[in-house]
Amino acid sequence: MSDQARWKATVYVGGLAPMVNAASLHAAFLPFGEIADVSLPKPEGPNSTELHRGFGYIEFEDPEDTKDAIDNMEGAELFGKVIKVSAAKPPKNVNEGLGSKTALWEQEGWLAENAVSEEDKMAADRAKTGADDAPYDPMQGLEGLDVAGPKPA
């Protein structure tokens, strides 16, 4: 199964109680379809006593099973805590987007999405100013504002 297909068959489960383990998570989601993998990311700190970071991922054999799992388990209670269940999102590439060590405009996808030709910029400017009229005068319409105070009646 490709990575893209695997993420479509995976659900995110958040708000997990500290005592939840892979076996209990597997048992809770087994009624919705065959489970290929259960993952509970470990805490990043070396001295942490936590078993997981409070969330996990469940990969089903069939992507259609994710819909049933989300519909039935979203907002359900597991070990005394209400859990959040949604479709999993693929991890971001560390070399793309904000937080990358590469400048945003040098990234492959950014330029393709945000590139605008000079011809398009000039056409947009002409449309804003009213086609090919005289250049915009920012002082136009301010003739009567040279006198301070209330307007005479």
Automatic annotation (TrEMBL):
Pfam families: RRM_1 (PF00076). CDD domains: RRM_PPIE. SMART domains: RRM. GO terms for molecular function: RNA binding. Residues 9-90 form the RRM domain. Residues 115-153 are annotated as: Disordered. Signal peptide: none annotated. The keyword RNA-binding applies. Keywords: RNA-binding. SUPFAM superfamilies: RNA-binding domain, RBD. It comes from Cadophora malorum. This is RRM domain-containing protein. The keyword RNA-binding applies. It comes from the Eukaryota. Residues 118-131 have a biased composition (Basic and acidic residues). PANTHER family: ATPASE E1, RRM DOMAIN-CONTAINING PROTEIN. The lineage of its organism: Eukaryota, Fungi, Dikarya, Ascomycota, Pezizomycotina.
